[in-house]
Amino acid sequence: MLGEVVGRNAIVHPNKPKDGELSLRLYRNVGSVEAAIYFYEGHWKSPGGINPANGLALFPKLRVTGASVRSSVGKGIGNIEVGYYDSRDDHKGNNPFVNNSEFRALVGYEQEVARNLTLGTQYYLEHLFDY
């Protein structure tokens, strides 16, 4: 927005939220499977928007719901995590100054390949809505 490369000469001054946040995790083990659901109501943890009137960085409201599953797979351990990040200040993606809602997923696998040596791999996906 400044029309130039910025850095130390364009310090971000955020408008930090004054209200609180709520997070919840419910989990259960069923045999060798660990399953959990997550809920968060609060704000993006880093500035996710800007007020064009005064140039202050914003922390838009955010609601996150998600789930995870972790279990033994073959000789290792596999996990899947999914979450929907609902950008409460811009449900429809019409405001270019606020983060859009997004879907995130992570699939992973790890296995001990030698004594005290574990090899792991992960695939991460982010899908931005209404871009």
Give structural notes.
- The chain has 131 residues and is an all-beta fold.
- The protein has one domain.
- The strands form 2 sheets. A 6-stranded antiparallel beta sheet has the order 2-3-6-7-8-9, with no helix packed on it. A 3-stranded mixed beta sheet has the order 1-5-4, with no helix packed on it.
- The mean pLDDT is 89.
Which range best describes the helical content: under 10%, 10-25%, 25-40%, 40-55%, 55-70% or over 70%?
Answer: under 10%
Oligomer type: single chain
Overall radius of gyration: 19 Å
Overall number of structural domains: 1
Order of helices and strands: EEEEEEEEE
Overall strand count:
9
As laid out across the biggest beta sheet, the strand order is 2-3-6-7-8-9
Poorly predicted runs of 5 or more residues: none
Shape: elongated
Number of separate helices: 0
Please outline the major beta sheet: 6 strands, antiparallel
Short structural summary:
By secondary structure, the chain is mainly beta.
Task: Please outline the helices and strands.
Layout: E1 14-15, E2 22-30, E3 33-43, E4 49-50, E5 57-58, E6 61-73, E7 76-87, E8 102-114, E9 117-128
Parallel strand pairs: 1-5
Antiparallel strand pairs: 2-3, 3-6, 4-5, 6-7, 7-8, 8-9
